Amino acid sequence: MNQLNKNKRRPKIVVIGGGTGLPVILKSLKEKDSDVTAVVTVADDGGSSGALRKSFNAVPPGDLRNVLIALSEIPELQKEIFQYRFKSQDEALSGHTIGNLIIQATSDMKGNIYDAIQLLATMMHVKGHVYPAAEEPLVLHARYMDGTTESGESRIPKSGKMIDYVAVSCAEGRKPVHASRKVISAIMDADMVVLGPGSLFTSILPNLMIPDIGEALMNTEANVVYISNIMTQLGETEGLSDADHLRVLHKHLGGKFVDIAITNIGLVPETYIDEEPNDEYLLQVEHDFKGLQDEVPLIISDNFLELLPRGVYHNGEKVAEEIFRTAFNSQRKVKQFFDNR
């Protein structure tokens, strides 16, 4: 594909992941002149999503809900209603958000999660496309470094052991796992595919371990970008540098498929880490520039920090600007240039 021309069309950007980091990037990308598609993990089994999944044998709605809100252009009051969470004393509705209940009800009405999300995306004036990674709930399985195993996205990080490898299976039976409709075509037609930010083993890899998604990432002509996490996570990435995160991704798919790493070099103040109430995060991810050079052809490093009262986040506007600029100005598969020097 020739260099993207601003007068011809908007770059197609596919973002894959889940958790709290993904909506931050999507909300900022929405403001860019790009065609954005979000592919969202369906392996969550905790909190409100886990309870609805168990009760209805359904795809967990929480990550999908947050992505719909991030890309929606409905008024803020309507977003607040959609995101309202019932209090713990509300008995049967304790901990559930209205949005999760609406997604579950729409899925029941339409008969599947894919059609439900497309209907809600239209109702919520979503700018872009939102697809579940798969159309049925998946179970995440982990093998630890000591050879022991565990299953369940919410249980895996609680063992206190280092994770070696993860895989996914269908929640029911031994059916093969397949990507949702339009996910593979979106990846293959994209100008850029973005992974993260998000929990490495429980938000990003559950999507990549769906066989046809992993295969598409290995074969797409789009540049594949990884947004490195800012902080290490308890039960997942203790002691891992930004280069180590990439090594884990490449190990899982059996080859180097990431072309560009976006990594933070801003320093999180120690006082902020000490005072941070979120016990999920530990220390800042170490920046290993030489290690990154061994894994990817192009590294984009800057101070991408945004320190908020509820946690350490990427500055969505700065990251989105880098993604958009790179997608717009670079040819597909930047690594081909490096491979053929």
TrEMBL record:
Pfam families: CofD. It is found in: Cytoplasm. SUPFAM superfamilies: CofD-like. PANTHER family: GLUCONEOGENESIS FACTOR-RELATED (PTHR30135:SF3), UNCHARACTERIZED PROTEIN YVCK-RELATED (PTHR30135). One of its GO terms (cellular component) is cytoplasm. This is Putative gluconeogenesis factor. GO terms for molecular function: LPPG:FO 2-phospho-L-lactate transferase activity. Belongs to the gluconeogenesis factor family. It comes from the Bacteria. Required for morphogenesis under gluconeogenic growth conditions.
